[in-house]
Amino acid sequence: MDLPLLDIDVIRSFVAIAESGGFSRAAVTVHRTPSALSMQIKRLEEMLDQPLFIREARQVRLTPQGEALLGYARRLLKLNEETVGHFLKPALTGQVRLGSPDDVGTRILPRVLARFARTHPAVQVDVLAGRSVDLVQRLNDGDLDMTLVTVGNDGLEPTLGEVVHSEPLVWAGRDGGLAVQRRPLPLSLANQGCAWRRVALAALDHAGIDYRIAYSSEHCAGQEAAMLADLAVAPFPQSLVRPPLRRLDQEAALPELGHYQIALVRGTAGPAHDALAEQVKAAFRDYR
């Protein structure tokens, strides 16, 4: 049986409604009337034979089926943009020099670089990994065009750049390990100046938990190695806690660490730089 084809305009309207939480607000975004959007969603629900929104007095919420569709819808819109842009947008050329902390590089940059190479194959992207404070200095010296930084690191202005990502910072350690039970608590931390380190030590001091800094490393891989060997526990982004590591704070009575943020700081402006910046921000939106 031939399956029906989704209308990209309807998909765009669906995403606008889901992200804004209402038909009236979405209507402004897509330049249609609320009644026209309502008809579009009604036809979409009939096509898929699923309810997509729960309609309340002042807002709408996604149903579980709507939440499932939202991921597909966002990917469809991006693929449509890539496809049309490949033929209609003028080819960008040049060079963009991007800085990134190593923990960001392992999570986000592979998909950013792969997609950017497909959409803008004539642009050369040079990536430099390092500490946030050093990357900002390289940006100020003119050696980088833009850089990602961890917000809150020593030597950085708290309002520097545009925040593009936020996620919980949690305690992590080896699944089934004993390090979390030891006192003083053995820690694997980044070097002095790291926001994760400062937040973790302040939280332990406030909670009155004895600790010792067992291992220090500039790179996440060094912190992770100590955890994998069950030699220490560490403050780690929740998204990086993967087996055989596990989150510890909820069961070990360790203090909450709050959220940490990543910001994009730009120097040089230009079409190629704008295009890469937009894809970096889009990659973080997808990562959430």
From TrEMBL:
Residues 6-63 form the HTH lysR-type domain. Gene3D superfamilies: Periplasmic binding protein-like II, Winged helix-like DNA-binding domain superfamily/Winged helix DNA-binding domain. The keyword DNA-binding applies. It comes from the Bacteria. Keywords: DNA-binding, Transcription, Transcription regulation. PROSITE patterns: HTH_LYSR. GO terms for molecular function: DNA binding; DNA-binding transcription factor activity. The keyword DNA-binding applies. Signal peptide: none annotated. InterPro entries: LTTR, LysR_HTH_N, LysR_subst-bd, WH-like_DNA-bd_sf, WH_DNA-bd_sf. Belongs to the LysR transcriptional regulatory family. This is LysR substrate-binding domain-containing protein. It comes from Alloalcanivorax xenomutans.
